[in-house]
Structure prediction request, 117 residues.
Amino acid sequence: MIDVWGIRNCDTVKKALTWLDANQVGYRFHDFKKETLTAATLDKWLKAAGWETLLNRKGTTWRALPEKVREGIDAASARALMLENPSIIKRPVVVEGGNVSCGFDAGEFAKRFKKGE
Prediction:
């Protein structure tokens, strides 16, 4: 069983969940809007994937930040931003054991989750 974190109405999350369902991959979905992201969970992701991978610099949440904040971003300030507003995390975050990835790519999902075929 894998854990998928995101926002239910996010197009990329929808694509990932549709792929997982179509390929009969079991998962638990965690909605950032309904379930609080804990510092401990985020710290595990940061250790596994790195803050630069997790930080979504293409979304509206990022673009809404003051330029001074965006220019001065570092590991500590990125962590604080992600805890304060998980919408700034690239979605979906997919956790399987110690593996943590962000975003959706059908080819990568096929390599990762279609084991034994």
